[in-house]
Amino acid sequence: MTDHIATRVAVVTGAGRGFGLALTTALDELGTTVIAVGRDADRLRSATAGLRGVRAVPADVTDPDGRAAIVAAAQEAGGLDLLVHNAGELGPSPLPRLADYPPDALRAVLETTVIAPLALTALALPLLRIAATPTIVTLSSDAAVEAYEGWGGYGAAKAALDHLAAVLAVEEPGIRVHAFDPGDMRTEMHQRAFPGEDISDRPEPATVVPAFLRLLDERPPSGRYRAADLVPAGTA
User: Fold this and answer.
1) Is 182 helix (H, G, I), strand (E, B) or coil?
2) Strand ordering across the sheet containing 82-85
3) What pLDDT, in 10s, does the model give residues 129-144?
4) Does this model's pTM top 0.85?
5) Domain 4-229 grouped into CATH 1.20.58.1480
């Protein structure tokens, strides 16, 4: 395995809670400077207050000024080795069937999940292109490749994001570009997808982080990877 600390500076969007916070915490423990991004400034600063290597950047990834602030923070930190597009939008809750999906709600899902990551990536590419081991990771979902009732809007957005990652990998061969499917997790977003249901059987986000770190360690070819297939040796 390569050394985790080879990732000197990382940007993690949606870092104020859930998987984004778990990943930010793990990267900080490994010595990475993390530009932690979140829309809720109070939540973000509170969640990352004890993490010494984390620079909290309250920003909305759908806002051009917010994206510029994120890239500026990375530049001030010395560059950018890892860009993690973790921020996303579930859409209406309860999840509607496609025939009942409000068009404005779908636009919001696509704006946060597809358009904003592409715009942020374009802005960050000059820094990534000169990094030693540049990596971009988009958060995928099984809803991107499976047809689940009610998940049409979210799934379509994740499928589009997967394809953007695949094309970007072809266009930027010097950068590893991965779509990472973490599987079901016990998060606020997942609870919103199942209002009133008990989701305590889902794994905590922190349990998925080792699979993500293995992806960084092994640097496989660009592509889509499932956390379930990346469980570190000896932990299965």
Assistant:
1) coil
2) 54-58, 33-38, 9-12, 82-85, 135-139, 176-181, 223-226
3) 999 999 999 999 999 9
4) yes
5) no
